[in-house]
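Worked example 4.2. Below are the chains of a multi-component assembly; read each line carefully before continuing.
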Amino acid sequence: MTELHDGSAVPERETGDDRRETGSVASREKSDRRGSSPVARTSLYFRQVVAEMRKVIWPTRHELTTYTTVVLVFVLVMIAIISVLDYGFGRLMFWVFG
Amino acid sequence: MLTAFARAFRTPDLRKKLLFTLAIIALFRFGSLLPTPGVDYDAVRQCTTSVDDDAGIYGMVNLFSGGALLQLSVFALGIMPYITASIIVQLLTVVIPRFEALKKEGQSGTAKLTQYTRYLTVALAVLQSTALLALARTPGRIFQNCAADLVPDDSLFRILTMIFTMTAGTGLIMWLGELITDRGVGNGMSLLIFTSICAGFPNGLWNVKAARGWDAFIVMIVVGLVVVAAVVLFEQAQRRIPVQYAKRMVGRRMYGGTSTYIPIKVNQAGVIPVIFASSLLYLPQLVAQLGDTTAGWRQWIERYISRGDHPLYVLMFVALIIFFTFFYVAITFNPKEISDNMKRYGGFIPGIRAGRPTEEYLDYVLSRITLPGSIYLSVVAIIPILALGLFSANQNFPFGGTSVLIMVGVGLETLKQVESQLQQRNYEGFLR
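Applying the procedure described above to all two chains together yields the following structure tokens:
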């Protein structure tokens, strides 16, 4: 536990280039950025976007179908409830004001 | 799966919350149909039935208010002023140092900001109701081909009463929304928008059938289902950042040592950016209404921004959605807070040191993952405009991206909240 505490406290005190040693992607990317042209930087950004998208976990087919049906049922039920309400209130308004 | 709905109603406190939410929704619909004093109810009815699908300039806003706007009801303005006000206040937190300080202050600061948002809402409501009534006073301006006189008595006192009523209506809606958030299920504001869109849905669907026949109707249903599935797919997609918790001894007991992950959704911002973008694009139209009909700038706005099918409009819409997605993610997701929290409980991302590097790493992932998220949002949102070209359908195309996004997004959010409450009582929820 003490070890961990030391480890977490160090980066706060140190700044700048020391961080590159941590080997995090963020700091590596930062050093890459320095002194490169805007075109290279944008293409690097897009490559990083693709790299991150590869790590995305998509819902499985089963999850997708259940979620879709559940949402559809919910939305249809709500539409039904609201339509009934609207019809009733509409009649009421017509009766009172019409 | 369907039994889960029944089970939700059998759980006492959940049933109370669900019924409360439904009651508020009913109240909201009641106010949306209740005519404002001073409006000729028969004339409005005549006009709304004669021009159903061509709401013209007010199309999008009418959609958001569930048809209440064109009926000049008590809740005619809907939640639009509140949305606009909250966009403005949130944008101002970046610009004005005092607002930024308030935001950093924590709970009391946020309360202050909410208070400002409410004042601004009332101011905007006064402005919008004045604009709407100025339009309604002259026959044939809200409804292009309906000459009935909507407001028979346009004395100053009458008009002031109407402005007052509509502003009060907006204030009431704001309160209803907060009540749902506090004591019901789901987010109040989004649920009220959801209600409005649901209210206009059957009518819009029927209009397409009436105008284009069964073929287009079936094609549209199929397209709609595909859009719903796509929205669900993207709303569920997440990048999982692994987190390890260090083992530690507290007294004689071992804690931690578990590994979890931080889920970062591809679309972390939800449906808010789309709502923001479309309400912001509505603002120029509002300003244009107050101007002279022949003025050059007004005609420019009407030509390029009021019509949803102009390329310039599409471009601005997409740009705004992408901007608001990044903006909203930056506001709501705070990497520093998360990394601080992890550090406090002895958690770390494998291979990355705690503290500053973790914060940077989270920021790195977030800023990379949000780009595809924002592109997805804008693609879904411009589907109605693409359909406009393909089917020559009108703007109120019911499977329009914005409406489907909001319906599915809010539906998912609300269901998940109900689900988590069901699971608290060890019941199996809907989403298994």
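Take a moment to check your reading of the output against the notes. Residues 224 and 399 of chain B are 6 Å apart (CA to CA). The domain at 205-432 of chain B is CATH 1.10.3370.10 (Preprotein translocase SecY subunit).
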